[in-house]
Design a protein that fits this description.
This protein is mainly alpha-helical. It is about 30% helix and about 0% strand. About 10% of the residues are buried.
């Protein structure tokens, strides 16, 4: 098998797509999510929709229950950490209901 060259089989990737992303791909995904899913943007309808579009397949990363996937390495949850703004209480919410004296 020493005569096999993996580069010769690269075109077959369309038949067997890999869900494994390179470190650089994951970094670019994380960077885009961090930008699109900023708390201020998610508080507006259009911004929330944009963030949801990027995060919809990885919200399981924030589910601690039966359907959670945070411990599944194939889900690359670390790259989707910025999606947490969709499932967490915004920082701006804290203190709004407190009485001021």
């Amino acid at each position: 098998l020493g005569h096999l060259d993996c580069k010769d089989y690269g075109v077959c990737g369309v038949l067997y797509p890999s869900s494994v992303k390179s470190t650089s791909e994951l970094f670019l995904i994380a960077k885009k999510i961090d930008k699109v899913c900023e708390e201020d943007l998610v508080n507006m309808p259009e911004g929330r929709a944009d963030c949801q579009a990027l995060c919809k397949d990885r919200l399981c990363c924030f589910d601690d229950g039966k359907y959670g996937c945070a411990n599944d390495p194939s889900q690359n949850c670390i790259a989707y950490a910025g999606c947490e703004t969709l499932v967490s209480t915004p920082k701006s919410y804290f203190g709004k209901n407190e009485k001021t004296t």
